[in-house]
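The following record pairs a protein chain with its ligand, adenosine-5'-diphosphate.
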Amino acid sequence: MGAVIKAQNISTSYRTGFGLKEISFEIEEGSFVCITGPNGGGKSTLAKVLNGLVPLEGGSLEVCGLDVSDVHNLPEIRKNLGLVFQNPDNQIVSVIVEEDVAFGPCNLGLPLDEVKKRTARALEMVGMTEYAASAVSSLSGGQKQLVCLAGILAFRPKIMVLDEITSMIDPVERNKILQIIKGLVEEQGITVLLISHRFSECLAADRLLYIENGSLVADGNPRQVLSAALNEDEGRKSNA
Ligand SMILES: Nc1ncnc2c1ncn2[C@@H]1O[C@H](COP(=O)(O)OP(=O)(O)O)[C@@H](O)[C@H]1O
Ligand SMILES: [Mg+2]
């Protein structure tokens, strides 16, 4: 299996001054990679760069062999790489739960039967079947996050980028979501990039990227990357 994402020296810059600084990495097809690091470090920016929502200032980026800086490639890239935003309110497009989950597969032009099957299955996987006909506005933040996860499960892209999708979800549900992610990777060969602050999620991944101040400061075995980050933090405190 080859690399489905190839990022070479990618840089970005917002008008406010913040930017990603020459980040390079490759992601193997079918791997489970976690991305972590302090708030404001650039994790969500990187997620948005991957599907062309934030433009590149420098470097090169390929997703499934397609150049992300060529706008003509973006529709195909977005079919292959699905992104769940950190804030569910930025993701949800419909008033009713099942309509929102069906939005992605509908846009793929699938037959209605298939859309319904995928929607029902996705809602069942995240434990939200009983809310299928509910108004999204009546749900809690955590339930909205589950609806967003169901949306990408129904869409079934080859690569899923999940940005802090468990931030408002309780520990029992969080563990279920981790099991869903492992199933996607191990049984369906889906590539998952999970952005998370949680040790349990970082440690469950095959590989961990640590992003701080717009730079990729560590990339490798999750346990080693986390212990290096902890040591560095301890060092900073004792020098302070
Ligand atoms: N659309 C934007 N315009 C300007 N600055 C932004 C924008 N989005 C994020 N930022 C800034 O970029 C920095 C990195 O943000 P972000 O990528 O969301 O980090 P993280 O996800 O690691 O917390 C922060 O300082 C944030 O305020
Ligand atoms: Mg973020």
